[in-house]
Amino acid sequence: MSFDDPVIDVKGLGKRYEIYDHPRDRLKQMVVPKLHNLVGRTGLGRNGEAPRYFREFWALRDVSFQVRPGESLGIIGRNGSGKSTLLQILAGTMSPTSGEVSVEGRIAALLELGSGFNPEFTGRENVLLNARILGLSQQEVEERYDRIVGFADIGEFIEQPVKTYSSGMFVRLAFAVQAHIDASIVIIDEALAVGDVFFRQKCYARLEALRSSGAAIILVSHSMPDIEQYCERAIVLDHGEMHYAGPSAEASKRYYLLNQAVQPPAPASVETPPLSAERSGAEVAQPNHEAFFDVTGLSQVSNGKSRCTRSAICNEQGEARTHFRQGDVVVFYSEFAVDEDIEVPIYGTVIRNDRGIIVHGKNSWQVEIEAPSFVPAGSTVACRQEVKLDIAPGEYTFEIGLAAIPAKMWQRRESTSHEEFDASFRSLCHIAQAGYFSVGVALRHGVSTLTHHGVADLPGTIRIGARTHARAREDVLHVG
Ligand SMILES: Nc1ncnc2c1ncn2[C@@H]1O[C@H](COP(=O)(O)OP(=O)(O)OP(=O)(O)O)[C@@H](O)[C@H]1O
What we know:
six-stranded mixed beta sheet; 26% helix; globular; Wzt_C
């Protein structure tokens, strides 16, 4: 085998599950077809198709790809798209229904970390046993033991039974063993999401070292920044089928578009008329058609007289985007149909991180803008908000909302308190889970750069000066 030959070669892979509506159907399926065949052979009965008591479900269909030494491939897809099934087939713990899978070399499968550990044994005993099971010779295990334990860094717990470990310690030890077995293929299923950030950094550094020494890496993750950062290529699975295979940046875009249920470009005839003759307030630039996502399936909390008819997420040029970099500007655009007269419309968005924490929320009351002072029933309110993403890399959701306040209050907003505003503010329509996007690290001169640490990049300055004290210098000189 040459260095360029694939270590993983998957051709036309399919996996079919049998779904039984009742447990008794499983039993019938085990017995009845056999009886049927028997009766058929004896010629006592009619020899037709044996009855079937299950429904077929294809978790994977016609999946093909190759991975070469030193390559890293990302696998992405929504829940239930077939990722775990694919990994289990690659790891050899499940057999495919159709197609061919060829895997060359030793696999480190970081799938169910620690599943080979015996809870009664100490960490030390489990390392020695597990490393042997994973293919190291006794001599190799002894040589690497200190490195493995050093990597796990769980201190004196190594001499305790693993049943006393926290889940984090357990995973650290299991990962440490897998990362030192000289695997030529490393399969990871979001295993790195566990453990603290220091340990995660160590894991990624180790993966990078394994990859540069020629190991092939397969990483399954819902984190698009991780996929983009660690994989050159990725495949997007959708309902068990390969929706896309190619560069990971493009794959993550396809994945987000898939999730946003993007509307096909609307025919010209149903285009929303520009707010021209009757327009009040500011001119609101519309994004391109492909940036719009389908809001019909989203749950809207409305006063019954307003509803969001279209919504889009894009960049400043109006191009569809769901993946951004730190410092980029995201544009949220929404249109609302109002079936009652309202005074000043207020539009706002809220951005939350993957832990549900509000990272940023702002509405049009909080910025100096021009707004219509009266919107008659039957109008469309178009809103566009731009936000500079000076936030941490990660995944975010956004919510959008429209409200109204009396025109009188808008006119004297300089002197209106937050409490007064809150009391007069009338919510018209709110979508709590409008969509999501991801933020990756910034690129400066082609080099990935973390612009700040933490959730938000707060405006501020840093100054550095140095003062040399004559006395201190003399002292130093005397000492010399
Ligand atoms: N043993 C099984 N019997 C029947 N259906 C199954 C079985 N295991 C998985 N499935 C179905 O196969 C599909 C793919 O499952 P799989 O676990 O591979 O998806 P996944 O992409 O890994 O999802 P997740 O992101 O939620 O882990 C799902 O619809 C799942 O319900």
